[in-house]
Amino acid sequence: MPSEPHSTKHDILPSRREFEEKRLPVLVERLQVRSPVPRGPSAVHTYAVVILVTRGQSQVRHAGEWMLRAGDVHLIPPGDPHRMGVSDAEGWGLGFHPEVLGGAGGEGASLLGPWLRVRQGCHPVLQPTLAQRRRLLRWMRLLKDEVSRAERGSEEAVISLLRLVLIELERVSRPAAVPESPSAGLSRKALTYIETHCVEPLSLAKVAKAVGRSAAHVAGVVRQETGRTVGEWILECRMAEARRRLRVTDERVDIIGERVGYADVTHFIRQFRRVHGVTPAAWRRRVSTPAT
pTM of the full predicted structure? Predict the structure, then answer.
């Protein structure tokens, strides 16, 4: 979640490790952020985040400086640097791996509209109505309960509840555009292009050409803004699509490797193991086995 561990108290779910290992699609936590928060490096996640503030207020740096107040919703796309400032607030945090909604261009992609608009430079803070906040809070509580139970059918229920949250966020008035630094805008454009084209033959040079800048400049900006290289983001997006296919299809590992951009299945397995610590087949067995 988007706050530094030493400044935030979490009602941590037993499934946090599974979420961080990308074995579970969603994590919901109660958040308590107390002041003061020492300044430090910005956080960057590979998953999307929703923060619903229920009490108090909190400063946040994310494409500008904002003050989150009770009732506000903060949206953080994958790869967006963000950092908490002085805070005294409570709320709920929801993190989810976008691939669980479907591959790029699939029907689930439309549910990511609010995050895509933030990535394109729109305001990252939404102000839902009281009725909308109540619905969001109810669904987050149900998500927390469903994830923690990990019973048969829980994953299907979790995805259904997640979709309700995302549909509600789409209904909230679209945020207005806000000014951002040229480097942040370039990094976001590069990440958006990578997410859309990651399963194609892709390189730093191709990303740089797509955003109209030199390869060296794009490489430096993306590394400075996100803490990761362009190559690492390409790998992350390919692995996300591989996880989605391993989770929801019965395709062979070699077929999945080819569909996410690897002609050599051995290279695909090696890359997958480097990221996840296990082979694709072992990872599939893990996520298909109910937690005990």
Answer: 0.81
